[in-house]
Every structure is written in C-alpha cells, then in structure tokens.
Amino acid sequence: MTDPHDERATIGWYRTELPRDVKLELCKRSDLQGFLQAGGYLALWCCTGAITLWCAFTGRWLAVPFFLLLHGTVGSFNINGVHELCHYTVFKTKRLNDLFCRLIGFFGWNDWVWFNASHANHHRYTLHPPRDGEVVLPAAYAGVTRKNFWKYSLWNPKAPYDQYKGTLDKARGKLEGDWTLALFPESKPDLRRRLVNWNRAVITGHSILLLGSIVTAIASRQWTWLLVPYVVSHSSTYGGWLLFLCNNTQHIGLTDKVPDFRVSCRSVKLPWIASFLYWRMEYHIEHHMYAAVPCYNLPKLQKLVAHDLPERKGLFAAWKEINVILKRQKENPGYQFVDALPDTAHPPVMGNREHEVAAGAVPADPDASCDEFNAESPSEVAV
Predict the structure, then answer these.
(1) 50: part of which helix (H) or strand (E)?
(2) DSSP one-letter string for 154-205
(3) In this structure, are residues 371 and 90 in contact, taking their beta carbons and an 8 Å threshold?
(4) Which among 270, 298, 305, 267 has a CA at the least distance from the CA of 285?
(5) CA dihedral sign of residues 244, 248, 249, 250
(6) What is the pLDDT of residue 182?
(7) CB of 254 within 8 A of CB of 263?
(8) Which residues pair with 268 in a beta bridge?
(9) Calpha distance 325→138 (Å, rounded)
(10) Of 102, 214, 355, 373, whose CB has the highest number of CB atoms within 10 Å?
C-alpha cells in the first residue's frame, strides 16, 4: 500500500539528470569543510561580539553601534546554520552536526527540533500546502515590505521579548498555530516532550546569562555588563538587513503546486562573504533538487546543472524583478511568475493542477526529519 506521506509516491519531482557516480561524489561530506563553514561562522560571530563588548568596556562608545550592527548582521544568519546542520550534510561525523546545530541554535534561539520537522515537510512537499506549511504563497511573504525591511535592518526592540515569550510558551508545553500543532500533535507525546525539553534548555541558559549579567552589573556598578546578554543572546534581533534581502528571495512571487523546483524556487548570485554567511543557500533551486548535497558542494552542483536552470541574477537585479512581480500580483492576485529557462533546458514541468492540489491536501507528517534525505543508495541520493 502506498504511504500517503511519501512524496515520491505523490509528487513526481523533476530533477536535472546526473550520473550516479557524480551524485555520490557531490554528496560526500567532510569534517574539515564542515569546520571551515560551521566553525568559521561561529568564530566570526564570537569575534564581532567580542569586539563590540571590548569597545563598550573600554569606553569606545562611538564605535559600539557600528560593531553591534556588524555583529547582528552575522548573528542574523544563525537560522541558516541551523537549517544546514538539520540536514546533517555539513559534517561527515554525525555527532559534530548535532553539537554545532545545538550550539548555533542555542545562541540564536532557533528551535532546531521544530525546524527539523517543519523543514523536512517543506522539502518533501515544497509549496504544496497544507503539507508544506512552512512556505505558503503568498502569505509567507506578507511581511516583505519596505517598513519591515528597515525594522529588521537596524533594530527590532520588541524582538528579545518575543524570543523569551515564544520559547517560554513552548517550554511550558503551550503550542499554538495550525502548523505547529500539525507537526507536534497531542497523539505524539514523545515529539512534544523533545520540543519542550529543548526550549527549557534554551530559556534556562539565556536566563542564567541575563541574571548573571544583572547581578554583576549591580555588584560592580559597571552597567556595561547589561550589554552582554544583548550581544550574546539577542544578536539576531538587530542588523538583519542582509538576511532579509537574501532569505526572502527563495520562493517569493513564484509558482506553487508544481513538481518543478526550477519554477517554485529562485537561485541568485552573491559575493563570497554573503554566500558564506548565508551557508550557500543562494543556490536554492540546486539545494531543493539535491538536498543531500552539502552546502559547500553546491557551487559544483550548480555548474553541472546550469544548462537546465534559469539564469541566476545578482541580489539587486533579483529584487528589481521581485518588485515587478509583487506589483503585478497586487493588481492580479492569481498571477504567479515562471522564470525563463535557457534553450538547453528541459521545458518547465507544471504537472496536472488537480493532481498537484490533491498531493498537498493531506496533513503534514509529524515524523518527518531532514536526515531522511541523506539516503546512501544512488537512486535516493537526490531526495
């Protein structure tokens, strides 16, 4: 009997063909490259935070806003680190993936337990709601406005409160939202317990840091200590301008309920430092086509499939195009953009609309995990 939660039985995803040995080579993971990416990102975050605090403690207050903004720019990409590490493709050694996923997730208040379940369903059923409740067009991008760009680019004063409240609610077992309840139903107490335990650990750790900083500030009468939790615990609440511009390009304005990632995803070009911070997710079509490929191998994959993909645009050109699409969608809510493919490409696979709608009409799978996309058999290595 067909598993109703097996996307391979319901969605006939189009993927650019690659030889078996090439796919296996691309999917090889490396602890060294993993350390360069994950360790390098964490080290950069520590350095920008340390410089910010050094400026504050030595009285160089004019420099603090600049380095705080820089630190937030780095810290905002915390979610992309959790994303890649949840895929278990960054390190060859699984325990290193686990360690860095929890470290990075802790400092960014990113709930890797929730994200793992959500993102596995997103990959299985990309833009096929309600199976994919992570990205539902156009609602997922309703917050992409000029006002919100400036809000997240500089400083969101309410964000630390939202982090504490959201984490505390889950730590108490108070789950809200249709998507969260679909991923962690009452019928799955073990999954809920795992979610609660992680959030309890996060809220406890950050609360200890906050209380310790307050006590130290009072005892030493050096109020600069109050900046410590803001730098360590809340670096994803300010300086998010680059993350906003990068992350929101992935699916905005594109076409849902189709079995072709070239139609539902967008890849862009980025400078090397932005690519590093973004964990190579500018290769977003490529990532969805072959989710088992580590982020540091995506540039190689891109070269092999470029003949079959839309031409990548730079970030400025991509947003210029997105603005045109959003204006047209405002005038015509039913409009969805399909990017042009090169002459060498296979024509876009739009599928049967009725079938695609039906494929997404089944509830999400609470037991889904991003680790399932790393099957060793060549026939499954693309999934």
Answers:
(1) helix 40-57
(2) HB-TTHHHHHHHHHHHHHTT---SHHHHHHS-TT-HHHHHHHHHHHHHHHHH
(3) no
(4) 267
(5) positive
(6) 94
(7) yes
(8) 313
(9) 12
(10) 373
194-253 per-position pLDDT tens digit: 999 999 999 999 999 999 999 999 999 999 999 999 999 999 999 999 999 999 999 999
Cα–Cα nearest to 381, from 17, 2, 6:
17
Amino acid code (one letter) for 356: E
Residues 6+ apart with CB under 8 A from 185: 366
Q: Which amino acid is at 17?
A: E
**Spacing of C-alpha 282 from chain mean position:** 11
Q: Angle at Cα 353 formed by Cα 352 and Cα 354, nearest 5°?
A: 95
Contact 34, 96 (CB under 8 A): yes
The residues, any chain, with a CB within 8 Å of residue 319's CB and separated by 6 or more, are 245, 249
* CA dihedral over 136, 128, 29, 282, signed as positive or negative: negative
How large is the average pLDDT for residues 267-285?
Answer: 98
CA–CA dist 85, 254 (Å, integer)? 26
How many CA within 13 A on the CB side of residue 114?
24
What percent of the chain clears pLDDT 90, i.e. is strictly above it? 82
Instruction: Return d(Cα 320, Cα 314) in angstroms, integer.
Output: 10
The answer to whether 339 and 296 are in contact (CB under 8 A) is no
Cis peptide before 342 (omega within 30 of 0): no
- Of 45, 110, 74, 103, the closest CA to residue 277 belongs to 74
Q: For residue range 17-31, what is the model confidence (pLDDT) as tens digits?
A: 999 999 999 999 999
CA-to-CA distance for 187 and 198, rounded, in angstroms? 19
Q: What are phi and psi of 269, to 5 degrees?
A: -100, 140
For 325, the token pair is 């699409």
Q: CA-CA-CA-CA torsion for 46, 49, 50, 56, nearest 10 degrees?
A: -170
Phi, psi of 369 (to 5 degrees): -145, 140
Query: What length does the chain have?
Result: 383
- 127 close to 256: Cβ distance less than 8 angstroms: yes
In this structure, what token pair is assigned to residue 344? 């060498």
- 8 A C-beta contact, residue 157 and residue 234: no
